[in-house]
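job 3f2a | input accepted
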Amino acid sequence: MQNAIVLNRMYVGNYLMSNLGHEIINLYQADNGNHYLYLNSTGDFVQTHQNKVGYMLMVKYHCAGEVEVIALATELEDVYSADQKFNAKNNDINADILARQKEYASTEGGISYGGVSVFEIFRDFQQQSVFVTYKARKILIPKTGKRIFIRFRNPAQSQFPQHDESALIVTLEGYQQAKASLKQYIYPDGTYKGDLAKDHIEEKKRDYTKIFETLIADSAIWEEYSVPVSKEGLNEISQRNVSLFDICQIQNDENKFSNALAYFMTRPEYFTLWKGFFINYGIELTEKFTVSREEASKIEDTGVDPKEYPSGGRIDLNNSIIVIENKIKSDINSIEEDGEGKQLVRYYNYSKWRTSLHGCTDYGKTPYFIILTPNYNPPVIDDDQMKSVYKVITYGDLYGYLSVHKEMFEHDNNFLAFFEAMHRHTHENVNDYLYFEMQDKFFRIIKEVSENFEKSR
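job 3f2a | predicted structure (457 res):
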């Protein structure tokens, strides 16, 4: 009986930055109406699990010791040859596996998405010879507004983030979160042949029962999900042009993103745009303002009491009264001492010194302090004073504002590219934007292959 559960961790790793993750097929219905699944990370499973796995919980990393469940696949059927692993030293084995995969696809009437074969879609993405791992009877997703989390027994995790009261949290007693593997098996008897982790067997048995009864067997929390690759979707994705931000993969580069932000803030034709944005936060721009990038924050007045104005390092200083600390990937959650004191405190003291030095005439009124951050990386400021000083603005806030004022810059291809590049930083979770970009690549490849085929006819 196929009743084991596999947790399939999706949208993970630097591989996705320049490649197409094969797991994108898991949430799309094939053209023949069936659902096929890819098991990370290489599509295969060892023979120990052959004809034993009946359910897949598709999960994404949420925090250490916790994953979020994004979908459930039921009544899995093994795709033959998925129990064979790619062999870098034997091309005959790989060719045989691929031939068997194609033979299986043929018995299914072909496996394609948007009219393009799964083998053609992933042909150039360093795939192994396994393209399809399972066939599923149904794909279910949590009902609208429902979030589901699984917490592992993890001694290193002393505190988990708080969730909305409506969230469903399943806490495991026996299983620890897999450190490296992107797949994790949960069996009714707590273990399986070949499993080296024989500890906490009774707790693991209870874990299986808890997952099955709380998640898999509870139809009230799920809704069926069958979404094919549509022509409308392909046309929509093709309307977004690929820019140098995409090609050079600089969306995560804080300095380059800050350079772009500073550039567009200095353009006189966009003064009204930025003025409208900042007024939402109680900040009023004047016509005469300058933008300075990475201004030195060293206080060079030897008469200044260093205890009152500790200094050093560099600062993102815009308009000399608006200090914007742009944080994309670097960690502000654990703000470290970096030479001359904590960043946020040092920036505050430096700006206070600058305004006091000039008598608040050349540099306007009291400085304003902003942390611009992705939605998935909200800052936790330990210093109570800095909590009251810094306003946290997310890229979601900025993107939302620019979205309703798009007519002011859509003629400017550079600004438009910057606007579109910041979209990835509006997601609540890193995995969400990885999925967004994966879907983008998936649709573009399908459209490109289809168009090339039409041209060759």
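job 3f2a | Residues 301-320, 331-341, 360-364 have pLDDT under 50 and may be disordered.
job 3f2a | closed
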